[in-house]
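Subject: Re: docking follow-up (magnesium ion)

Dear J.,

Thanks for your patience while I sorted out the input files. As discussed at Tuesday's group meeting, I've set up the holo structure prediction with magnesium ion included as the bound ligand rather than trying to dock it afterwards. The sequence and the ligand SMILES I used are pasted below, so you can double-check that they match what you have on your end before we go further.
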Amino acid sequence: MSRPGRELPSLLLSHTARRRQRLTAALGTGFLLTVTSLSALAVFFIFYFIARDAWPFFRLEGAREFFTSMRWYPSAGSAEFGARAILVGSGLVTLGAIVVAVPLGVTAAVCLSDVLPFSVRQVVKPVIEILAAIPSVAYGFFALVVLAPLLQQSGGPILGLMVWIIGAPLAALAILVVVDLATDKLSDRSRSRVRVLAFGVLSAVAVAALAVAGKAASGLVISSGTNALNVSLILGIMALPTVVSVSEDALQAVGRDLREGSYALGATRAETLLRTVIPAASSGILAAVILGVMRAVGETMVVWMASGNAAQIPHPWYNLLEPVRTLTATIAGDMGEADHVTGSARYHVLFAMALCLLVFSFACNTSSEWIIRRARKKAGG
Amino acid sequence: MCAEASLPAIRLMVEMQNPAVEGCEKRSEPALPSHVETRDFSVFYRTNQAVKRVSLQMSAGRVTAIIGPSGCGKSTLLRAINRMNDLVPGCHTEGELLFGGQDLYSPDVDVVTLRRRVGMVFQKPNPFPKSIFDNVAYGPRLHGGVSRGGLAETVERSLVDAALWYEVKDRLHENALGLSGGQQQRLCIARALAVQPEILLMDEPTSALDPRATSRIEDLIAELKGHYTIIIVTHNMQQAARVSDYTAFMYEGNLVEFGATTQVFSTPRQKQTEDYITGRFG
Amino acid sequence: MRLQTRKILDRAFTGSGVLAIILMTAALLILLTPMFVRGSGAIFFTATVEHRRIMLEKFDRGDRDAVERDIRSARAAREPVYRAIAEFERQLAAGDAAPRRLYATPLKDVKKALSVLFGPEPGRPRPMLMRDQYGQARWDRAQVKLARVLCREEWDYSNPAKAGVLVLKPRAADFAGTPVAEIFPYLQQNADRMLLPRRTVYWQFLTDVSFDSHFFGGIWPEILGTLYLTLGAMMLAIPMGLIAAIYLTEYATESRLLDLLRTCISTLAGVPSIVFGLFGLAFFINTLNVSPSKSVLAGSMTLALMILPTVIRASEEALRAVPRTYKEAALSLGAGRWHAVWTIMLPAALPGILTGIVISMGRAAGETAPIIFTAAVSVGKPLAVWETLTQPTPALSWNIFNLATEHEAVDEVRHVQYGLVLVLVSLVLVLNLVAILLRARIAKRMRV
Ligand SMILES: Nc1ncnc2c1ncn2[C@@H]1O[C@H](COP(=O)(O)OP(=O)(O)OP(=O)(O)O)[C@@H](O)[C@H]1O
Ligand SMILES: [Mg+2]
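The structure tokens for the complex came back this morning:
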């Protein structure tokens, strides 16, 4: 094991070598930091440039009309820029999307994290990933070309069917629980008779109610398939992957101990999840909802293609069957014309809308992160 | 010529005009020139003092074992010797740590050269996810100046020294992660040997291995002794007794006892040491 | 509550979870099925002789003799129709003014419907627009147009309570007793002899340029445009994203600055895509003047900015997943920090980084909003590489929108729309599949 002789490198660096080494290290780290800050600076740039072009609008037209008036006539002789209907439109489709995405998404997340075996989960995960990956314009195309004609032709009957499909199981469960709770205190002998009676009466009531509601729904005439309902459905599906994956993370973070503690007390899986796990994960689920909202508000192509683009507030406001117009669609749709008149209020109002979007998504992002971080700290400490 | 004459450490001494060189000629001299020496050396993680004013001398060409209960600062002390602690934010030192007479923590020490001269083997085998050959060649390539033929030769010699050559010579270009744990650890030793260090730091090198692989590593240490200064951290008393020439016992950051292994294990001077060795606590 | 009830509730709960997942999967299938079924119709369809004529005349494709024979036989089959009309016109010209006035409009309509179906009448001067030069190239469209020849559409407003109802009136009735009346049954019975439908695989749909705003031809400019935009975006985003990730994981020490950087990057991830589009317009084009107006370059920059956070996050995660001991081992051998990252950390993190890159690539390829104001035009020729610096381009995503909503004849180009959707969705799906496979490989390696 003898080694050929070799010069031992000196441990010490000469003064210049040390200076050079320090310099290269500093330069290298500086370069990395610069590039990293560039990507971070982009956010400030975005805020600055959007605000810079939004500012002239508020100076020219003031903010009051923008937020309170419903009259959106940007190209008229005496242009009016009341964006309230558009803000409400954005809000409405987002609300609709959340109504679709949150129950479905949270249930799916619970199922994924606590019910399904590992092998099934491996199959379902890619489904969620693909749902998230499909380009928004493809969703929009589907909404416009497949869903809109379908809604227009047979929207009423479909809605009627939906009432039955969703209503019947819910009603059955509700009746079961109500009857059970009501008859809990009764003596054993009278109980079974009262139960049968209550079941009969309540079921009859429920069926009647469902029939009335279903009839009313199938009688609805949908004058245009490109409406808020269409967009809400599609946006809901698009927000689903976000809601599912973020809530699933939150549910997984709850940990085994809590679950096992609950099972040990004799709770069923449903009770464990509903009473223990979901409350413990509630802040994470809230963050998931916020991120879903963010996705729905920021989505452009679907609403542009399939919302009908009518700058009006539906009557009544929750009537999803009427066309609406959103901020994103307005920006996308009007820029083509406003582009030629750079400097006009018409051009700048779109930046004002973009600023609203930006501020909103910033608020959503920050709050969801704050919620997640707080939850993590609580879990850690 | 005595065996130590081939030791790079000795040439280092010559280079540094250290009068201790003469001591080498008389092999009977019990105290070999100290290769690494700490003087009132402390290491802090922010405010937590993990190593407390430790002074000891580790002899060239000998095996020094560091033992002590978990969390007593063994790894910290070991990692201070090749300045791996520099990576830990908030870690700083006090006192002196001399390597061939040179304070390692003086500002003009080149960490890269230092680590090249002080090799390290980790607790868990950690070969790179590359081929066996590339693993061993990583260091020589890094430091340059070797031809392709020279590289192959260095790799072979390092593998032979690490007692792994005959097991892997036909599969040099297979992924190193396909080796068994014991083989992986010997590969890591070969990888460290390939840069021709003078000191080999080993932090519980066998704690992740089964007894057979452990005994191979121990045999290897015995073979490497004399050519390298080896400092080994271990939780295994028998191992320390078997492989080391000197033993240091640490407790809560303090150096409790340091001396020849035979002495420390047979007639410990401190009560704490005795308790620990006989398994009464720890 | 009774145990029985609690058990039923538990089952119902589990059932609703499973149902939610089934619904989600069903939604995916319902979405993808029309895209794939009708999208493949852009390539596999029953083509008429007109399609073969276009192929021959515009691309010099197909067996010239066979196609010309087909054209001749189709002409011969159509001949009686034109003859009957000419005959009737002659009669009218020779007769009174009253029937002439009566039949003028219906006859003009029939001739127009016929020229839509078959192309211009032989012997007429060649029209300007290509869509007028040829008849229906696709058999499915031809059947729609044939129905238009046979019947005219009329709106019935007789019931004031309801909206107008569309009714079809056979034209044969309009021409009863004239020679023209006979052409309708003839057309109905001999449609396939006049158009010679044949199953065709028009795979050049993917590589042909389009003619006459997508009435004919393929979608190559769109595909190429999307490739340019995506690759351009990746070329900008990958180095920046990697460098940022390396800095954040390997170099940065925990500090206020680092927190700020992270917040910025996550905010960037949350910016709505349309805002990126506006920013691209206001910054890259109007302020930096990277190009005089829309261009692939400006679009790529905007897209790059949009996917940057995804790339950074994925790379960061992949780098963090590499065992620390690798880095320590490299450093202990005397490697510098940069060298350790370059030779050990990056290769070990590569599959994870690639996964992130591939997924963000799919996102860049599919996004529309950021390129509306920065890069996309509806019609354009395929660009050469150097032209991407200054020229705008058509792109799959933008043209799906454009053809489905802004095109002058949305229904006529439905198959092109579906074809574009199919290509875009397949591209994104393939990229995601790659990502899934890569991830599976990482998982396997982790287990070893
Ligand atoms: N990176 C670090 N940051 C902060 N404190 C640390 C760090 N590494 C170790 N310590 C602390 O320093 C002390 C000594 O740790 P060290 O790892 O040296 O112990 P050890 O003797 O090697 O233990 P073991 O036998 O378990 O490996 C411990 O109290 C530990 O908590
Ligand atoms: Mg240790």
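A couple of observations from a first look. Chain A has a mean pLDDT of 86. The interface with chain B takes residues 1-3, 5-6, 8-13, 15, 17-18, 21 of chain A (CB under 8 Å).

Let me know if you'd like me to rerun anything.

Best regards,
T.
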